[in-house]
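Today's session is about reading a structure prediction critically. Students often jump straight to the picture, but the first step is always the sequence itself: look for stretches that repeat, for charged clusters, for runs of hydrophobic residues. Only then move on to the predicted structure, which in these notes is written as discrete structure tokens rather than atom positions. Here is the chain we will use throughout the hour.
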Amino acid sequence: MKTRKRNGFDNQRRTTVPLKSDIDLPNPIVADPQCLGQLLSNLLGNAVTHGDRSQPIQVRGFERSGELFLSVNNRGAPIPDAVRASLFQHFSRPGKQSSLQGLGLGLYIAAEIARAHDGELTVESSASADTTFKLRMPSQAQ
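Below is the predicted structure for this chain, in token form.
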């Protein structure tokens, strides 16, 4: 059976996930917009792939004291401590989930983009507090 594509997307592979955002960035951020877009895309893709698709993904962004804070939060199974230790390494994939898309580079690339902007990407994950990836970086060029 041939899959019908519309606008370049495979309709059978589409996923609808609720998304909520709270962005408060009244001042310009000095950064590479394509790189930050890639970082956010990678974090959102990760949340869609590994999170509970019936629960909203929450994106927050704000600036405080010269720093940009961006977070992506999703509900779902917590990331085990053993997996979290290598999460930002290249070709890292949780467990044996070979059926999932990707090469295991998304979080590595996101972390490298954060480092290239003198920032840091971290993760917090627990059954009670969901999973949250957090970017912290200077909001202005150093």
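Discussion point for the tutorial: The first helix runs from residue 33 to 50.
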